User: What shape does this take?
Amino acid sequence: MNEIITARNVGMKFKAVTALTDVSIDVAPGEQVALLGHNGAGKTTLFRLILGFIKPTAGTISIDGHTPGSNPARRIVSYLPEQVMFPKMLTGREIVRFYAKLKGAPADEVQAVLRKVDLLDAADRRVATYSKGMRQRLGLAQALVGRPGLLLLDEPTSGLDPISRQHFYELTADVARQGGSVLLSSHGLSELEAKTDRVAILRNGELVANGPLAALQQEADLPIRIRVRASADAVDEVFALIGGKRLNCASVELLCPRSAKMATLSKISSLGPRVEDVDMTPPTLDEIYRHFSNLGPEPDMRSEK
Amino acid sequence: MNGVLTIAATEIRIGLRNRWIILSSLILLVFALILVLLGSAPTGEVKTDAVTVVVASLSTLSVYLVPLIALLLSFDAIAGEIDRGTLQLVLASPVSRGGVLLGKFLGHVFVLSVAVISGYGIAGLVAFYASGGGDLAALLGVGRLIASSIVLGATFVAIGYIASASVRQTGTAAALAVAIWLFAVVLYDLALLGGLLASRDGVFAHSIFPWLLVFNPADAFRLYNMSAINVAATGGNLGGAVGSATPLSGVWAMFSPVIWAVTALGISTMILNRVRP
Assistant: This one.
């Protein structure tokens, strides 16, 4: 067994709150896993358990065979908390150097890591002058230094613009390519943009899904959304023929299961000139996430309210 | 050990950058210079070295200012880092929690030492030359004052860590630090004075009071400096007879702050070990 994280039936109870119930999850070397869940679902609690800051009230966790929080485990793990404010008076380079020394990483790695996160030009400026995105990248630099075997990232992309986010996933992919594992948490699937090997979804402290995104997509089996725009004056006719829901005076929207996709499309095409345009949207990542989080469908798909 | 020194070096760097070192040095220097200039007036009457008089005044100043500066340096050490999320990062790295505290302690004591040495050192030299040179032994008194002030400061740095590790908010830690300062350097002495006045039979004054006096690191510091001055200024009345009546006289009085510092570091490490960031 050479998993980096092995969690078996982990439960965590605080005084009045049960934060995690019977969570079992493995992360292999070189694997990138996204941990999803809304606020309070237990993502940060799981991270704190993996870091050894708190001890599980049930079950076991091991980090490459070591107890979380033990010295060998801490040498493997690198952490980026959701919110971190580095000392404003220090420069980015000084901060990365500080954590490199604490982790016993060689000094020349500091420069390499700063280049990786694109902070080389600002490295000798004080953190007080950094933008939010730069601070986030500095946090990542701090986590990357020391070639961690396991990168724990709590909501790492929440403050990033799309381009930085893409760059961010390139960096975690780099870590995975070198054999490191990445476990990152996020509020929603759309932020992930399908960049991880596996998705685990926590709901109220329980692991409700754990698998590759494609498998989850199949399992959820959410309907495809088809939007038909009828030509002038034909909308009532189209609506009568294919059903669904009228959006406005020109369009009709219908949801159809994946298995009925082709049949529905041929039915629409048989309407001939009465249809001007057809848009087809597969279930979005957010819809899949909502399905497993049991939040119900998106507001505009609800019948009431 | 590498981690400890890294943390200490970073604390010193932060102390330089946020101008803590320069500010506390200036505060000590300004107060010390005021005392030097005011203290030069009564020199003739007490027939002691001008510098010795200054040392006596400065040691009283130290009792108030040094613990305050020390507590201001240390109250933020743990609570603030939890607030900002950096403690989690440090604790996630392979450094022991005791090592984290020790590193901060070394850094903060260094910052304090720079302030005390430059503040009192300059004031001492000014007094020395203003009184036209004079006895070199008086300069030794300044050195003794500086050294014991650093020990006193280290004690309150360590006590400040207890406050900082026991609460989660920086604001609460600050309030606790102020309360500790008020109690140790003001209220404690008032209470002792009240006790002396209340117990007419002298049992309190003879058998309890001296121990209570040495128990407080700030009072022990004062005792040490006053008794040292007593020896230096032969026949002088500056220190009174207090020094000879206490259970730990002379340099032994400094045991109190040292023991306090070690104990406080131990207690704060114990509390930090229980913190769940």
